[in-house]
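Hi everyone,

Forwarding the result from last night's run.
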Amino acid sequence: MVMRRTAVAAAVAMLTLLATWGGARGATAATAATAPKATGAAEAAGACAVLAPGASAVAERAVAAACEQIGVWYTWGGGHGPQPGPTYGQVDPSDPDSAHDPERLGFDCSGLVRYAYARAAGGDPLTGNAYHQFHSPQVNQRFTAAQGTGPLLPGDLLAWGSGGSVHHIAIYLGAGKMVEARESGTRITVSDVRLGGDYAGAVRIAPAAAPGTFSTWGTDVWTHKEPSTTSPRVHRFPGPTTVRIECQKHAETVTAEGYTNDAWSYLPDYGAWITNIYIKGAAWLDGVRTCP
C-alpha cells in the first residue's frame, strides 16, 4: 500500500509539473487546437496594465490596447492584414505547433505590437515584422541588453535575436512584466521579462504627430468607403483614437449623439471616411483643406 500511494503521489506531481510547463513546445497539434499552453486568460488579464509611472500617453494607450487582447490566440503571421487587427494565421514550416494557426484568429508578436501602437497613435506607425519594428524610424531611444529593465518604461518594446536578426518582440508593462504573443499553441498573455538567452535590448517609440492629426471620440465608431452611412463599412474604432485627416467635404447629413452635421473627413491611413460628428473639434475642422 505504501508503494502504491507513493506511485500515485509521483504521478500527481508529474501532472502538476507538466501543467506548469504548459507554455513549452511539444504538445500535439490536436491538443494545441483545444487548449492553450499559456496561463489562463482570466489570471493574465488581472495582471495586464501599466505597472510603472513615467510613460507617455501614447505608450500607455498602446499597453491598454495590447492588454485588451489577453486570451486571443497567437497565430503565425496574424495581425498583418491591410489594416491593423487580428487575422487568421499561416503554417510555419519550422513549427509543428502552427498546424492549426490558419484556423485561429489572432496575432503574432509583431502583429500585436502593430495593432497596439496603431490604436494608441492613430495611423499605422509600426508595420512590418519584429526586425522592422525594432529598427523603425519611430524609435527615439534605445537600450542595450546589459541595461536590463532598469531604464525601461511601460510601452517600450523588448526584442530577442542575435547576429542582427530579431525573431520576437513584446511590450513592456513595468515591474519586470511584459505582454506578448509568444508562440503557436498559446494565447496572448503577461510574462516575466526574459533577460537571458538572446535578449537584444529594447526601444522606446515616439510616433511623430503628422499635420492634420485629430482624435476621434465615442465607442464602436465605423468609418465608411464613401462619405455616406449607406456605403460599405471599412474600419471600427472601439474607442478614442488618434487619426490623420487629409481633407474634409460636405456630403450626407448625419444625426448622431445629439448632433447633426454634413461634414465628413477622409482618413488616408484607413482609406475611409468618417463623419465629423465623431472628430473632436469644430463641426468644420480648422486647418483642414476641402477635398476636391
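The first strand starts at residue 73 and ends at 74.

Cheers,
N.
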